[in-house]
């Protein structure tokens, strides 16, 4: 009998996760993120969950690549005071990484709900550049269309979070292509190619 989770399976799963990461927009060549260029990084995970962020791996991985990260979650429990605190910090930050974590449900509305859409609009209005990483529902990119960077992390899993964080900081090649059409935004096969940053991560 085959045991799943052996190293060979795991490295194959990691490879597939890495190859799926798709960069759709990269204004000002923000990616790969350089800690010297953006010393004060803010990460905001937006989720449709009320039990805390479904994905802790993303922030844990980002902290491996950047020494100064402020982290916030915006979910169903976030109060308006907490939201104000997030927006205040956003204005003081050099760069915002917005992780959008949603469960993809059949028959669901393909956009963020009104509260989340409103929050994201305010975040984008802070004038701090925003890197959006979408996990779960890929069509959410339509709700967050004006961010400077748009990256598809696809599935809402730890492996994809790990792969997306590595890609953001140039620790891995980015070669993914869009496997769907996103009406009015991107076409099947779109994707920017970005080689690994050899300066930090060797050959």
Please characterize this protein's 3D structure.
31% of the residues lie in helices and 18% in strands. The chain has 203 residues and is an alpha/beta fold. Strands 1-6-5-4-2-3 form a 6-stranded mixed beta sheet, with helices on both faces. Helix 4 (114-124) links the parallel strand 4 and strand 5. Helix 1 packs across helix 5 and helix 2 runs parallel beside helix 5. The model has no long low-confidence stretch (mean pLDDT 88).
Low-confidence spans? none
Say how many strands there are. 6
Mean pLDDT across residues = 88
The N- and C-terminal alpha carbons lie at a distance of: 38 Å
Q: Please give the count of helices.
A: 6
Largest sheet: 6 strands, mixed
Q: What class do helices, strands and sheet pairing give?
A: alpha/beta
Strand order of the largest sheet: 1-6-5-4-2-3
Helix amount: 25-40%
What oligomerization state is this entry in? single chain
Strand content: 15-25%
Shape: globular
Radius of gyration: 16 Å
Instruction: Please provide the ordered H/E string of secondary-structure elements.
Output: HEEHEHEHEEHH
């Amino acid at each position: 009998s085959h045991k799943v989770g052996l190293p060979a399976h795991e490295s194959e799963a990691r490879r597939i996760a890495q190859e799926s990461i798709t960069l759709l927009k990269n204004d000002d060549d923000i990616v790969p993120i350089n800690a010297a260029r953006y010393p004060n990084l803010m990460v905001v995970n937006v989720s449709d969950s009320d039990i805390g962020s479904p994905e802790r791996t993303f922030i844990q991985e980002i902290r491996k690549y950047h020494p100064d990260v402020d982290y916030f979650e915006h979910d169903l429990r976030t109060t308006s005071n907490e939201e104000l605190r997030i927006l205040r910090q956003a204005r003081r930050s050099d760069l915002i990484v917005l992780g959008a974590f949603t469960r993809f449900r059949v028959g669901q509305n393909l956009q963020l709900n009104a509260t989340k859409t409103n929050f994201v609009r305010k975040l984008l209005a802070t004038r701090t550049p925003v890197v959006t990483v979408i996990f779960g529902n890929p069509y959410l990119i339509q709700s967050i269309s004006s961010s400077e960077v748009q990256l598809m992390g696809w599935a809402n899993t730890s492996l994809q979070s790990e792969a997306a964080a590595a890609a953001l900081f140039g620790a891995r090649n980015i070669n993914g292509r869009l496997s769907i059409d996103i009406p009015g935004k991107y076409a099947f096969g779109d994707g920017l190619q970005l080689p690994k940053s050899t300066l930090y991560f060797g050959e």
